[in-house]
Structures are given as structure tokens and as C-alpha cells.
Specification:
The chain has two domains: 98 residues, Tumour Suppressor Smad4 (Sandwich), CATH 2.60.200.20; 72 residues, Arc Repressor Mutant, subunit A (Orthogonal Bundle). The chain is 23% helix and 24% strand. The protein has four helices and eleven strands, in the order βββββββββββαααα. The strands form two sheets. A six-stranded antiparallel β-sheet has the order 2-1-11-10-7-8, with helices on one face.
């Protein structure tokens, strides 16, 4: 099952299932868009298009948007094939491309169905929430809390924080990202998956 995951203006997770039976989806601020981000003022009416081409999903901006489309923090020029775990940013909204290629019929919005994650320990959960704390009042993703900030909040040592973060990087599948992208990638996936909710921050 291949799907898009993102958070709406209230921070609630949303899911769009992708199917070759509907091979073209529009992402934009227009209420008629298949993925409508009407609350995000930095998203264009017609911002980007996702297309099923051959055996793959691709995202295409092709200068349709004013502020550009980014995949894993790289600005998109033309089309790009999407891979499991890719993060698509349009405006201040980050959309995760997750799952395997499937033949699910139709395209539906459903915030309740999410891919399974490895269970977190209570200590890992506390570290993760502390790392996400700076995002409490932000629609997009910026700078996660530092190791020192997390350690100070939880009253633990920095080495303890680092140990839990290594485990979290592995559980959320971001340990292969460049070092300077791991922390932001962890926050994005934690919040998009609903593991951390804004109400907990």
C-alpha cells in the first residue's frame, strides 16, 4: 500500500492512498485539488502533480508553483521519481511518501490507518517529545531541540540522550540520512505518523 501522510492545520494526521487506477493527483491550495492544502498560504492553487508512470510514482512541479516543491530538502526541477520515505515539502507542509507499490482501488482520505512502527520505550518517547517541543506552534518543520536542551528538560546526561536517539533513528528509518538531516527527519516522521501529537508538546 502506497500512501501520502501529512498533518492538517489542526495538526491531525491525514492519509491519501495512492493507486494506479487514479494515476494523476493534484496537490495545491485549491479545494478541488486531490491533496488540498487550503490552509497553507505558501502553497499555490496548483502546486505540484503526482503521476503513476510505468511502475513508479513521480512528482512534478515544472514551475507550476511560486515557492517551489522540495523532495528531501532539494528543490525539484521537472519530475522526480519517488522512493519509500521521501519527504515532499510544499509551502510549509511536509508530506511523507510511504509504503510499497500497491494496487489499492481509489484514493481515499483516512487519518486512522498508518504504517506500523517498532514500539518505543517510555524513555525513548520522552526524548522524542522533548526533541519535537520547538514545533508546538509551528505549521512546518524547523529546528529540533538540541541534545543539551533535551538533557536539561529530562534531567539526564547527554550520552543518555544520544543513546536513545540512535535507537529512534533506527526505528523511524532515518539512520541512513546524512547526519545533518537525521534530527529533522526524525521529527517529521514522528509527527506525521502521529507518534507525537502537537497536544503533547
Amino acid at each position: 500500500m502506497t500512501r501520502l501522510l501529512y498533518a492538517d492545520e489542526q495538526g491531525s494526521r491525514q492519509e491519501v492512498l495512492l493507486s494506479p487506477n487514479k494515476p494523476r493527483l493534484v496537490v495545491g491550495r485549491s479545494p478541488r485539488a486531490d491533496v488540498s492544502l487550503s490552509w497553507d498560504p505558501e502553497v499555490s492553487q496548483l502546486h505540484a502533480i503526482l503521476e503513476w508512470i510505468g511502475h513508479y510514482w513521480v512528482v512534478n512541479d515544472d514551475n507550476m508553483s511560486r515557492n517551489g516543491t522540495f523532495v528531501n530538502d532539494e528543490r525539484l526541477t521537472g519530475s522526480r521519481r519517488l522512493h519509500q520515505g521521501d519527504m515532499i515539502r510544499v509551502g510549509t507542509t511536509t508530506i511523507a511518501f510511504v509504503g510499497t507499490l500497491g494496487i489499492d482501488e481509489g484514493v481515499t482520505n483516512d487519518g486512522s490507518k498508518l504504517g506500523a512502527l517498532q514500539p518505543l520505550t517510555s524513555a525513548e518517547t520522552r526524548v522524542l517529545i522533548a526533541m519535537c517541543r520547538p514545533y508546538k506552534n509551528k505549521a512546518g518543520f524547523g529546528n529540533p531541540a538540541s541534545n543539551q536542551q533535551i538533557a536539561d528538560e529530562l534531567g539526564v546526561g547527554i550520552e543518555t540522550v544520544k543513546t536513545h536517539l540512535r535507537s529512534l533513528f533506527a526505528k523511524f528509518g532515518v539512520d541512513d540520512l546524512p547526519q545533518n538531516q537525521k534530527r529533522a527527519g526524525l521529527v517529521e516522521r514522528a509527527m506525521l505518523s502521529g507518534t507525537v501529537k502537537r497536544s503533547e508538546l
